[in-house]
Amino acid sequence: MRxxxxxxxxxxxxxxxxxxxxxxxxxxGFDRVDVSSQMQVxxxxxxxxxxxxxILDAAAPEKTGLLSSFKGRREIDPDEIGEIAxxxxxxIEICTRITELDKxxxxxxxEQIRIKTRLAQLETWQKLDIPLNTTAxxxxxxxxxxxxxxxxxxxxxxxxxxxxxxxEFELEIEHSEPGMTCAVIFVPASQKxxxxxxxxxxxxxxxxxxxxKVPKVKTEKLKEKxxxxxxxxxxxxxxxxxxxxxxxxxxxxxxxxxIRTDKYNVINHLDHSRHVFVIEGYVPEEDCEKLETxxxxxxxxxxxxxxxxxxxxVKLKNSKFAKPAQNILTMYASPGPDDLDPTxxxxxxxxxxxxxxxxxxxxxxxxxxxxxxxxxxFKPDERMRNNLKLFQYCGVSTTLWGLVFGSIFxxxxxxxxxxxxxxNVVMAHSISNMGDPTPALLPWPIIDPQKDxxxxxxxxxxxxxxxxxxxxxxxxVVCFKKKDYAxxxxxxxxxxxxxxxxxxxxxxxxxxxxxxxxxxxxxIASAVGLxxxxxxxxxxxxxxxxxxxxxYDITSYVSDLLSYSRLLALGLTTGVMAQVFNMLSTMxxxxxxxxxxxxxxxxxxxxxxxxxNALGAYVHxxxxxxxxxxxxxxxxxxxxxxxxxxNSKYIKIQEDK
Amino acid sequence: xxGIFFAILGAAIATVLAGIGSAKGVGSAAQTAMGVLSEDSSxxxxxxxxxxxxGTQGLYGFIVGFLILVSSGVLSGAANVTxxxxxxxxxxxxxxxxxxLFSGLAQGKAAVAGIAMSAKDEKNFxxxxxxxxxxxxxxxxxxxxxxxxxxQIPNLK
Lengths: 657, 157
What we know:
The complex is a heterodimer.
Chain A: H1 5-15, E1 19-20, H2 36-59, E2 74-76, H3 78-123, E3 140-147, H4 153-163, E4 170-177, E5 180-188, H5 192-201, H6 215-242, H7 247-268, E6 271-272, E7 277-278, E8 281-282, H8 288-298, H9 326-332, H10 343-358, H11 361-378, H12 382-405, H13 412-421, H14 453-481, H15 485-510, H16 513-533, H17 541-550, H18 554-563, H19 565-585, H20 592-633, E9 651-653
Helix pairs in contact in A: 1-8, 2-3, 2-7, 3-6, 3-7, 10-12, 10-19, 10-20, 11-12, 14-15, 14-18, 14-19, 14-20, 15-16, 16-17, 19-20
Chain B: H1 4-39, H2 44-52, H3 56-71, H4 83-120, H5 125-152
């Protein structure tokens, strides 16, 4: 019913359950209610408050800490909304006042610049004691102006006489500098035209803006005015600064109008008849029931659900473990209607690879703890919280990999121990060097990226193979769901078999010759299968060519796999850099000076290392997901579910009233 | 005659050439990024990521250089390098030296384009970033070759 409109919309907006479909045309028998004029007022208010906040920030910068960007929106009581609404008018008045004052300041500044140029012009006429715009007295014609050359009184007289010997004149130099002479010339009124011609020949020019006052007086006046403007501006600035206490209420008011703009925007797109109105929109399946009860509770209405169709937006739903990686997925593309939601797979490999590249127990623990504190103290918004959580999970994985690689701030424990006791211990023994008699700090054998680079490279590529196979597995499932069995088995399955065949073959080279045969058989069989099936869309001779040509794709798989060697390279980089900084920091010995040096270099070095390598690990992990894995199956192109909700910037309304 | 000179030469080649590539790459990317930042300073984080991408080559070169110094014993002061080993170090350094030099230059150009693209629309950022890392694989391959050789050289006779 129409009279329920306000209440229903408010509740819908609070709940954020539905994405309203905004069609441009109304259905037959329905009309649109045009509220765009109100909407414009609200939008104007939003812009006005934005401007006011900007001016306030310039006048009195908000005190913000380094970490305040993590801070979430301010939570407010649902009742406070009413209060904000009742005060909105006053806040808008303040904002108007602020922008007015700011405009005044700008005008004043412009005026002052004008005055300054006037003053500069008048500067050269300070000695003159008649008004600048004097052109004649009773019996004489007066010429006040400048020549574009430097003259003395005598030289100017000679120059004028040379132009017209008959001319009688009297002259006075007011100011002279290279390239300019300011002078006053008196001639009898009868010789005015003669004098004009002579002066024109010397490129005489009258002042740009003559005044009716004596220059000195005028200068004083202008200076006075400039002073007054400066004072006025200062007063305006002060007044602006005095409004800083309203900053919070301006922010809330801005959000209040933002929310109302959204609401009116929805009303604008609703179909109305005389008594009823229709809201059409997408609702996530699991929220249907909630929506129905809500609507029935607050209004008299009829709710019906239908199939969402092809164009429906996508709402991702994931477990706590995978949710943080959703941002990484949507940065690439939202899943299309045919896609699996790859977030869980993505999340697992993201944490795994990030850890392997960053691989340091010290750094990892630091990440986990620092992010834990930030989450506790600042209570960030959902999006930021997810991002932080992502890195927290990455931190856990980093710690584990750090232990596998035997790296805690590089080799810091061993390096420091050695530096202070003069002994010679190592962090741990690598798997290839178990019999080493030197004492080790870590009791378990490690994979040392420096000594076991080859082993680690093979491991990296093996992980890459798993990653790619999982990606292809997803493709297999997608094809299967679409009932594209040929695509599933021939295009994807055979390639998977082939890759596995090569993997077995490679394993056989190390382990046993039996596996070589097995692997080779699998690989050859799947290659034959590919040749037979890949040309199936073509005709005649093309069938054979298409089949053979598809085998060429093997090169792309090889380069994909080699790409995973970056797992080794970045892991090694972190470790070696840390080791270098440890070495530098212990260089100065263990006296007092040396210890100061140690602390400074140690902290700075590891900070640099964390910055550089965390960035590297993040970027390269992302690349492995996007380029190597997503290219195997992920289509993307879906639209994100954007519910009609309280879309605010500064305040957040507490849930559960 | 021992090979210390060539070992040190190798360390220098690896560090310097790859460093030049990265320095030029990061330099040109940073110039473009500052142009963008002068318009919109809120993009700093994204610009920083794109600017730093061509920086890895220098890092790889440095690591190879460092590993040469460690494994040849120059750092510990107990260098015992035969002429053949020294020449091998110098040879191994060529891969990351030249690989890093040219891939750094190329990645710098890609980063400049990526920055321009993200400046037009921030949504392009992740695509730009991934495209820029495509260049990196070649620095990576060069690095791995240098690395695998360098760690084996002490076993060479």
